[in-house]
Amino acid sequence: MHDRHQKTDRRGYEKISIHWKFHSRAAISIGNPVDLKRASASIALVNSDILEKLRFGVRDVPDFPKKGIIFKDITPILSDHGLFRASIDLFLERCRGKKIDKIVGIDARGFLFGSTVAYELGVGFVPIRKRGKLPYKTEVAKYSLEYGEAEMEMHIDALEAGEQVVLVDDLLATGGTSAAAAALIERAGGKLLEAQFLIELEFLHGRERLKPIPVIAFLKY
Ligand code: AMP
User: Fold this and answer.
1) Apex 14 CA angle, 72 and 75, nearest 5
2) How remote is the CA of residue 64 from the centroid of ligand 1, in Å?
3) Which of the listed CATH numbers 3.40.30.10, 3.40.50.2020, 3.40.50.720, 3.30.420.270 matches domain 2-220?
4) Which residues line ligand 1 (CB under 6 A)?
5) What are the pLDDT digits (tens) for 18-51?
6) Which atom of ligand 1 is nearest to the CA of 169?
């Protein structure tokens, strides 16, 4: 199904290049977007194939940005159009059947997935950014990271009271960032239907901090 070539780059990190030899079932799914209007039993069948391919697209970078952290680098997924499309389709599949007014994405990799999902759904996109990046008046929420402390903010007029939103980010670690984002959404009067992540570091139990908000993650470590 795939050949995985590993090399080491000049900084000593593992380099991965993947050459896919699609068999028919996976090729159909990777090459085409999910049809949101059509309930498809075949999605469930192809998912394990897709997830395996996406997993190979996540590069572990040790000791980044601090010693002891294994950084999950999703740039190999982004740079492969088939993998990027497959990852977006997973989010879209989860959004199917939900009445969504806005997608909220978290700075910065949540923007990559979230804005694309919003575009495909035909709804608005709202960025939640690290403090000091948004130009207009903001609400601020403090949070703790797997590797530090920070503050997130959202424009005060980004959501209207009662709007139904889905939160999107690349990765759920301790849950501090997304819990802060959830607090900002709630303060703005938004209804958070679900928090969606490409990756979850299960051993950090981040989803506990989001309770009772439903959490979905596609790749678990
Ligand atoms: P947390 O608040 O601990 O759940 O951290 C989640 C946020 O930090 C996400 O926006 C991730 O992009 C980033 N993050 C935390 N840990 C990692 C990691 N090991 N690899 C990649 N990104 C991470």
Assistant:
1) 45
2) 11
3) 3.40.50.2020
4) 69-72, 106, 109, 145-146, 169-178, 206
5) 333 333 333 333 444 444 444 344 444 457 899 9
6) 10
